[in-house]
């Protein structure tokens, strides 16, 4: 088990688009293992590689008792939308209503390079979209309307963790009224 520190809002790695995985090797399998261990320990519903400081297009999820991972994802989103509480392990104790597609078909690869397609709706769709956003340098607060984003930024600036000299911290647990992705 290799639990890694989770990067917090303000760390530049969270805003940099991740690069595609080209080597499906032992290091990638270790990264998936580290992501899974860290996500489960936090606990969270998902975790993307940039959140532990690795700029590769890989994420894990834990939704409805199912643990999974996806490498180099591409998404097909439904036109039907859902509103729901969303949080993020890189933004501790922050939850806001966020609009997402109700369902998703995610294409990518497993850690061995085998093609993988994941069909998800509701919470799984939300987690997959949230984590894929991380791979593109997008945070869920970027998807909020102007008033909610302003409130979120105020809450972030007033938090105990914002602006810490070392932006890497282990976060546990996240609030029970939201989902940490």
Automatic annotation (TrEMBL):
Its cofactor is Fe(2+). It comes from the Bacteria. It catalyses: N-terminal N-formyl-L-methionyl-[peptide] + H2O = N-terminal L-methionyl-[peptide] + formate. InterPro entries: Peptide_deformylase (IPR023635), Peptide_deformylase_sf (IPR036821). Pfam families: Pep_deformylase (PF01327). Fe cation binds at residues 88, 130, 134. GO terms for biological process: translation. Binds 1 Fe(2+) ion. Its EC number is 3.5.1.88. GO terms for molecular function: metal ion binding; peptide deformylase activity. Coiled coil: none annotated. The active site is at 131. Belongs to the polypeptide deformylase family. Removes the formyl group from the N-terminal Met of newly synthesized proteins. Requires at least a dipeptide for an efficient rate of reaction. N-terminal L-methionine is a prerequisite for activity but the enzyme has broad specificity at other positions. This is Peptide deformylase. It comes from Nocardioides marmotae.
């Amino acid at each position: 088990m290799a639990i890694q520190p989770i990067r917090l809002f303000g760390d530049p790695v969270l805003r940099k688009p991740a690069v595609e995985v080209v080597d499906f090797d032992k290091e990638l399998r270790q990264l998936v293992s580290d992501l899974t261990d860290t996500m489960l320990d936090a606990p969270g519903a998902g975790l993307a590689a940039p959140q532990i400081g690795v700029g590769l297009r890989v994420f894990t999820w834990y939704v409805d008792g199912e643990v999974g991972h996806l490498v180099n994802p591409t998404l097909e989103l439904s036109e039907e939308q859902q509103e729901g509480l969303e949080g993020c392990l890189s933004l501790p104790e922050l939850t806001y209503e966020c609009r997402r597609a109700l369902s998703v078909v995610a294409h990518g690869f497993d850690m061995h390079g085998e093609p993988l397609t994941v069909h998800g709706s509701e919470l799984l769709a939300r987690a997959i979209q949230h984590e894929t956003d991380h791979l593109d340098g997008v945070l869920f607060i970027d998807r909020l309307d102007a008033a909610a984003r302003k409130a979120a930024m105020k809450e972030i600036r007033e938090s105990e963790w914002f602006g810490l000299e070392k932006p890497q911290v282990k976060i546990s647990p996240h609030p029970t009224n939201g989902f940490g992705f």
